[in-house]
């Protein structure tokens, strides 16, 4: 790297340097207040200037293997030498270099901050302009809406006025017609009420008849409503049960014992033990009429229906018993387990094994140590087809526990449905 020429006048100086095989992208240059640096590997050029220059106003031009530095002097004057007299003092060079780098970094930070401030100001200005544009657009749209609303209101008022005028004209026309008819009727002489009809105007007389209307019998005085049908049916059912209970309590042919639900329950249990299931059903039914909220009566009658293979009636009675034993507590745990086993047994006898297994699972959760129920559960499990087993496991996973790892309650072969 060599110095070719030095042209100094009162305000600036030029420094030209030639670089062998110079490439613009690999060259780094920096102009500071007291020095200039050029880094072009493997070359490095550093010059400590004889006097300070304006680093912000200076510039460097690169091209055709030449770098031209244009440096503006702070103090106009002629330099005898480009280099400072302290160029050979390493300590001074180091201090000057560090001081110049700090000033350069500070200048870069100030420039960056100034650029950010300008950018923020431009951003605020752009946002304000956008807000103004949007406000103008909203005002324009509001103005259009007001004009359209005004036009519509005027058109409506005009139509109302036209309709009002038409109505007035029609009214005047009708009044004129009525007035003319009234005057014409006053001029006409009244005829006899026995005056015969003119010939050629006699009509056919219709035959008279009677129409018979039959209304559907209804208990309630109000009209029937589809939304009220279920409530009315429930009310009628309760009224029928109450009437049956009153009739049984007022029946003089029955003794006081036969009017006691507990006595009828014990009687039905004795009939069940002796194998007279139909008599047990009759006893439980009479007790249900007297005490329809006692779940044991429904559960025991369901056991009788199970013995007689009345499977649907067994399912209905056991479901009613489970409904009456809500909420589930420890005191009715054994009764709930028996009702679940009986209903599950009926489902299995109807070959509805999945529904039965669900009831058995619920009963086993109440009494998990019943070995007889667990052993019979395995026999029912074998009756399931592979598709039923996969569906049953899927239902168990959705319910929150694995049905395949718990023993399944069975009531087909054990006497857990005894009264």
From TrEMBL:
PROSITE patterns listed in its UniProt record: TPR (PS50005)
PANTHER family listed in its UniProt record: DYNEIN ASSEMBLY FACTOR 4, AXONEMAL (PTHR46492), DYNEIN AXONEMAL ASSEMBLY FACTOR 4 (PTHR46492:SF1)
First and last residues of every TPR repeat: 261-294, 337-370
Biased composition regions of type Basic residues, renumbered to the chain: 181-190
Keyword entries, A-Z: Coiled coil, TPR repeat
Record region (Disordered): 174-230
Species whose genome carries this gene: Biomphalaria glabrata (Bloodfluke planorb)
Pfam families attached to this UniProt entry: TPR_11
Protein name: Dynein axonemal assembly factor 4-like isoform X2
Entry annotated with the keyword Electron transport: no
SUPFAM superfamilies, per database record: HSP20-like chaperones, TPR-like
Coiled-coil boundaries: 101-172
A single BP term in Gene Ontology: cilium movement
InterPro entries on file: Dynein_assembly_factor_4, HSP20-like_chaperone, TPR-like_helical_dom_sf, TPR_rpt
Entry keyword annotation includes Coiled coil: yes
């Amino acid at each position: 790297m060599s110095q070719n020429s030095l042209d100094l006048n009162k305000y600036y100086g030029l420094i030209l340097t030639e670089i062998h095989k110079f490439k613009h992208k690999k060259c780094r240059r920096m102009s500071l207040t007291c020095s200039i640096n050029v880094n072009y590997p493997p070359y490095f050029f550093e010059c400590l200037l004889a006097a300070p220059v304006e680093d912000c106003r200076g510039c460097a031009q690169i091209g055709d293997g030449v770098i031209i530095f244009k440096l503006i002097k702070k103090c106009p004057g002629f330099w005898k030498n480009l280099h400072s007299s302290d160029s050979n003092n390493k300590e001074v060079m180091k201090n000057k270099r560090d001081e110049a780098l700090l000033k350069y970094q500070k200048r870069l930070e100030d420039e960056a901050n100034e650029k950010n401030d300008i950018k923020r100001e431009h951003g605020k200005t752009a946002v304000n302009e956008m807000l103004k544009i949007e406000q103008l657009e909203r005002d324009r749209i509001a103005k259009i809406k007001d004009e359209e609303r005004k036009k519509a209101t005027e058109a409506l008022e005009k139509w109302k006025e036209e309709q009002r005028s038409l109505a007035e004209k029609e009214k005047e026309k009708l009044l004129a017609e009525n007035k003319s008819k009234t005057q014409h009727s006053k001029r006409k002489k009244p005829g006899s009420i026995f005056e015969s009809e003119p010939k050629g105007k006699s009509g056919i007389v219709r035959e008279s008849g009677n129409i018979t209307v039959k209304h559907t019998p209804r208990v309630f005085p109000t009209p029937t409503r589809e939304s009220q049908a279920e409530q009315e049916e429930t009310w009628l059912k309760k009224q029928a049960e109450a009437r049956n209970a009153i009739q049984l309590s007022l029946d003089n042919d029955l003794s006081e014992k036969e009017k006691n639900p507990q006595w009828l329950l014990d009687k039905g249990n004795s009939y069940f033990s002796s194998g007279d299931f139909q008599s047990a059903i009759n006893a439980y039914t009479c007790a249900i009429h007297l005490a329809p909220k006692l779940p044991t009566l429904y559960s025991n009658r369901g056991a009788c229906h199970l013995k007689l293979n009345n499977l649907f009636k067994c399912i209905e009675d056991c479901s009613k018993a489970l409904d009456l034993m809500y909420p589930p507590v420890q005191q009715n745990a054994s009764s709930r387990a028996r009702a679940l086993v009986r209903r599950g047994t009926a489902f299995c006898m109807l070959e509805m094994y999945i529904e039965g297994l669900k009831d058995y699972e619920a009963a086993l959760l109440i009494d998990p140590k019943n070995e007889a129920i667990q052993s019979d559960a395995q026999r029912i499990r074998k009756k399931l087809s592979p598709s039923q087993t996969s569906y049953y496991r899927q239902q168990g996973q959705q319910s929150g526990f694995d049905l395949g790892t718990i023993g399944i309650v069975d009531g087909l072969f054990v006497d857990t449905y005894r009264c």
